[in-house]
Amino acid sequence: MRSRGVELMVEPFLPGREFTVAVVGDQALPVIEIELTTPVFDYAAKYQPGAVNEVCPARVPPAFASRLTELALRAHRALGFDGDAYSRTDFRCDADGDPMCIEVNALPGLTATSLLPLAATGAGWTYPDLIQRILDLATR
């Protein structure tokens, strides 16, 4: 949208549930749901202890988890991340419960409180396993 020389980007508010799916190489990890205690997942909610509940694996029907996984893999590949990269795709559902991609993180966090290590744990990997898999991607 352009008005008087100022450019704006306007997006609709998505009032539904929030999810994230990590991809390492060509493998999608378990879906994580970010259960908010605030209306939006802002900076304070992200870094304030107890402001969100991160559930892995997400408590969703298998078909919905598969849909999120496929969408994350498609986003990963669309950005040129094939089997030699890792990413994390965030989704927010609209009022009808349909997931919308809100961003793809090309370099997701690897701290103890980050979502990628949580997803790896949900896949049965230890933190050293995750780091080794990421290092192995660089040698492909």
Describe this structure in words.
- The chain is an alpha+beta fold and 140 residues long.
- The protein has a single domain (13-138), classed as D-amino Acid Aminotransferase, Chain A, domain 1 (2-Layer Sandwich).
- The chain contains four helices and eight strands; from the N terminus they run βββββαβαββαα.
- The strands form two sheets. Strands 3, 4, 5, 6, 7 and 8 form a six-stranded antiparallel β-sheet that branches. It has a two-stranded antiparallel ribbon with strand order 1-2.
- The longest helix is centred in the middle third of the chain and has 17 residues, at 62-78.
- The chain is globular and about 50 Å long.
CATH topology: D-amino Acid Aminotransferase, Chain A, domain 1
Give helix and strand order, one letter per element, not per position.
Answer: EEEEEHEHEEHH
Question: Which term fits the overall shape?
Answer: globular
- Overall number of strands: 8
Mean pLDDT: 91
Q: Helix share of residues?
A: 25-40%
Low-confidence stretches: none
Note the topology.
Layout: E1 2-3, E2 6-7, E3 18-24, E4 27-28, E5 32-36, H1 43-47, E6 52-55, H2 62-78, E7 86-93, E8 99-105, H3 115-122, H4 127-138
Antiparallel strand pairs: 1-2, 3-4, 3-5, 3-7, 5-6, 7-8
Salient structural properties:
140 residues; alpha+beta; D-amino Acid Aminotransferase, Chain A, domain 1; 6-stranded antiparallel sheet; two-stranded antiparallel sheet; 4 helices; 8 strands; globular
Short précis:
By secondary structure, the chain is α+β, with helices and mostly antiparallel strands. It contains 4 helices and 8 strands.
